[in-house]
Amino acid sequence: MKIYIAQMEVIPGNPEKNFSAIQKFVEEGIAAGAKLVIFPEMAVPGYLLSDLWEENSFVERCLRINESICELSEKVDILFGSVAKEKENGENGRALLYNAAFYASHGNFKTLIDFGGVKKKFLPKTLLPSYREFEEPRYFSDLRKLAQTMNVPVSEILSPLDLGEFKLGITICEDGWDSLYKIKPFEILQKKMQAGDLLVNISCSPYTQGKDRARDRVFGAHAKNAKIPLLYVNAVGTQNNGKNIYAFEGDSSVYDAKGKSIFSLPIFEEHGSLVNFENGIVSVSETEAPRKTGIAEVHQALVYMIRKNLARFGIRKIVIGASGGIDSAVSAVLYSEAIGHENVFLVNMPTRFNSNTTKNAAKDLAENLGCPYMVAPIETVAKTLCESLAADSFVRNNVKMDVVGIHYENLQARLRSAAFLATIASVVGAGFTCNGNKSEVSVGYCTLYGDTSGVMCALGDLWKTQVYELAREINAEREVIPQASIDIPASAELSDAQNVDEGKGDPIIYPYHDKLFAFWMERWQRNGIADSEELLSKGFEFYCAQLGVDLEFFKTKFRTNEDVMDDMRRWWHRYKGIALAKRIQMPPILSVSRRAFGFDYRESQLG
């Protein structure tokens, strides 16, 4: 049998557009001689939709599209993911919904559950993830609950679909990531299958750096254990939950019966590939496209997310505060690649604290990229505001409006973003960016309503050390980012104490603090300050080894355990205090790691 893998872009919340894409791929599959076309999980509605699932009219639109897809199956079988709905309500008092797989053939849906008089023309997902950004149990029931209502084990009702020539074992996304679940769909299916059959997993799985290796390990093992080939079909596109923006990279893969990945579709692009399946052997005649790895892959993912989401937001131009520092420089490159350098407006907003080094770097960056560039000094505006406030006073309180020190530093940051950049963006018909990185977001080294403002935060899931790594990758072939932006200390340049020409900069010690903050924030089993204290109690060598910090570098910064503890307590207090208040008001973060701030990392203000 010839099988066409349709790695389609799934548009969240737009079943009609998704149907058009499905129709196009079905026609391609027929033209290629395929007998079966396979689409991703939730190919009709989209995946990250939040409480849109509570809107009954939207669900009904999806159900109508399901029927329209069924009508397309006269000439070719179609396996796709969508929402299924029961007549009765679920435990939440709303419609009982499933994240389900459908198999259409000759204009009809095949029965995928047939046990004890219960017949269903769809297969519910067995395992519903409820961690990180996932919260499927909030909206959907699953095969486990269906089995419970039937008073039978899942193994009784989960069976492969008999297509005559072979049996097809269908699973949906999380069903393959079953290591922490008691019920294991692949093990259930393989007991009912044999050599010559085929496994398939339809997914809508978000991108994280290095996930391809984990995916190959997991799904390769399923194929190897069953001694049956496996097709993994994932979506492309971007989707968001309001606080995080995710890329779906595709990377759909074909695994042979030994668990080896013999072919993967290109990442971050719609693509259809024909798979030959005969006598239990899978083959693909197409040549696999080379794929980027490491920070180059992250670079590709960020540009992809920026391009797709600005288009979805209807934003064609962007304004960036170009300080001459590394974050704004990397952001400018990413946005230029995503929407074109002519649509990226760079604005340098100096005060007396900004060095010629950074001002020249900002200008050089604009020239290297070919972006529109403007110098808009903010010193006069800041001075006028301070003088105006100094002349004002409260009734019934004698506090003086002296805007000095940290207050003046924050004023500069707010003028740059909330006043200058927002106004310039309005005039040129653009959005403006937040250039913050994950290190600064972790401990609140940013100004609320200042540099935390913007339409989205492209670098918010990259530690500062990764931003530098990305800058070096950008400059691999030619100097796009001025070397000065890479060489100078990271600095906000908001006071004389942050003079980069004198080697002064931010109080965050890179890369040590990145590793410490990641230890608190990114580990699967969450760590607190007590956990880092315990590591430190075993000595500097053990502590640094566990965090992944160079011991000799660490010793140049800290002499005693108490020095380390004082520093640790200071940052922990910020991490759980003022930084938390700032984080929950951040714009959406482009997510590329195993844990991103936002809806992935949910926080409550407890103190």
TrEMBL record:
Pfam family of the protein (one): NAD_synthase
All copies of domain CN hydrolase, residue ranges: 1-284
Superkingdom per UniProt: Bacteria
Record keywords, A-Z: ATP-binding, Ligase, NAD, Nucleotide-binding
Pathway: Cofactor biosynthesis; NAD(+) biosynthesis; NAD(+) from deamido-NAD(+) (L-Gln route): step 1/1
InterPro entries assigned to the protein according to its UniProt record, in alphabetical order: C-N_Hydrolase (IPR003010), C-N_Hydrolase_sf (IPR036526), Gln-dep_NAD_synthase (IPR014445), NAD/GMP_synthase (IPR022310), NAD_synthase (IPR003694), Rossmann-like_a/b/a_fold (IPR014729)
Reaction(s) catalysed by this chain's protein: deamido-NAD(+) + L-glutamine + ATP + H2O = L-glutamate + AMP + diphosphate + NAD(+) + H(+)
Enzyme Commission no: 6.3.5.1
Stored PROSITE patterns: CN_HYDROLASE
Record-stated family: In the C-terminal section; belongs to the NAD synthetase family. Belongs to the NAD synthetase family.
Protein name: Glutamine-dependent NAD(+) synthetase
Species this chain originates from: Hallerella porci
